[in-house]
Amino acid sequence: MSEMNGKYPEDMGLRDAPMIEGEHDYGTVTDKIGSIVLDRPSPRQWYIWGGIAGICLGSFLVSFCWLIYKGVGVWGINNPCGWGFDIINFVWWIGIGHAGTLISAILLLMRQRWRTSINRLAETMTLFAVCCAGLFPLLHTGRPWVAYWLVPYPNALAIWPQFRSPLVWDVFAVTTYLTVSALFWYVGLVPDLATLRDKAKHKLAKIGMGIMAMGWRGSAAHWHRYEAAYLALAGLSTPLVLSVHSIVSLDFAVSIVPGWHTTIFPPYFVAGAVFAGFAMVLLLVIPIRKWYGVADFVTMRHMDWMAKIMLATGLVVFYGYLMEMYYAWYSGNQFEIALASNRLSGDYKFWYYALIFCNGLAPQVLWSKRVRHSLTGLFVVSLIVSIGMWLERFVIIPVSLSHDFMPSAWGGYTPTIAFGDVMFFLGTFGIFLGGMVAFVRILPMIPMSEIKHLLHLEKHESHPAAQAETVA
Amino acid sequence: MHTSKQEPTIFGVIAEYSDGEAVLAAAQAARDAGFKKMDAYTPYMVEGLVDALGNKDDRVPRIVFICGLIGAGLGFLMQYWITGVDYPMNIGGRPNLSWPSYIPITFESGVLVAAFSAVVGMFGLNGLPRPHHPVFDAPGFDRATRDKFFLCIEAEDEGFDARLAKEVLLATKPDSIQEVPNL
Q: Is B104 close to A30, i.e. CB distance below 8 A?
């Protein structure tokens, strides 16, 4: 199947295509996915990306230490642009994380079986993306070593966090999100860890997997409670993920800065998060499925669905851009109108038009089946969308701050490069890529137990291909 | 009743099957034969198996619901006590009990506590972590997480008789039947 290289046979409608391709039984599923972790040497690309992640991590360490030593002055933030790369990147990374939760939780509740092949990878992406995201506001506080002040605990200063501030809501939302995502991810892993424990030949792998599997033995009573807990976690994560990005958007919308103070922000931010997240999932999945030969499980049907979700959320985001302009005009407020015209014709207009191209126009090619079924096409669109979503936050944050009410308070924003904003941003890719590289090596990237369940369902249900097989 | 004197260390009798339907049918047959203490071991969740075995337990969702309410309630009270009672402060002219601004954290704390309760409750009721269990000694049991389905009638069952258990299981056409030692 892998030599098909993304091109789906024309005579086979994608709607009826099986979600697991090739000839598989429970054993081969275990072997195919489990042996990536246990036996198979890593492909060359794994080393290359490990190396790139290492370089990025180096850049992270250097810029992190410099930041801690000198303070946030090494970043390009200034007055009036107190929020720059730090908050752009925070919102960008956390938005990326949201697709993981969407795939694992919302699609589970909606009984979308196609989620099964990609949910583990997407959840892992969420974990590392949220880690990257969390770093930015933490370090942006300037004194991260007293970040625990954000936690309400009785203290000698007799002060408490300001619970009426969205920034404090954010602390609770992001930490809860990271914790719940980690729990969800780990619970999903437990049966697979048991599978690897039983499959492993190497003593170290057996012990390591055994400890992490907690003695899981696949008991029917356990499975029943497990399923209940897993569904509960999905049910909790679904409103959680919506709340997290809504609260992130309230960081802006609750203020009175022109361009931020609109009620459309929560849904518009959530759609943008899902949009960017699916783009990142595609960017990860397209190469990984090829290098690890798991195209039987992550089929073109999955790509097609993800592309459609990207298209739908992209349209919501584009609607958001149009509405921002409409609101500015309809409000009749001179500051809102000035901001809108500043976006269209001010110092940063190039970035605004680039944003419209990346998020508004480029994704429209996904209407075409040919693009949705071409891995190269999807990869390019996803890359453009990822850049576009970053630009969106750039346009919203420093561009709005640079021109607020009084011309005497206007300013500009330029990020610092060496040892500053750009290097630190690159550094967070080290955490993200390094995490993903380590993950595909040491943990099963596709949930084996769920694939087996899916295999069972596909075999026993009214599936034209499967039925023909049983008859013959 | 007939707990065989010559094998006092037996944990149970285990039968191996190759697919979910077979183990489901076997569980039903064993239940019909009067066995109560049994469990099945499968590589994925087989629907209806707990009903057939009669060991369904629906406590997890209730735990999650109650803990979620407790978490949300505590989150709200914490904010109210801090901003309304312990250190009231005028923030933009809002009243001390400005409940709408407490909603996000109330929700987040509810979700956090509920999620922990789901995980802790599930593992706790399952008796995990438990590194060792007698069924792990059943021959070929390492395939229970791979591609085989097992049904074990446990010796603790009051009507347990190893011979009868074997007979009942044999009628369900398993791939193999073994005794599980109780080490």
A: no
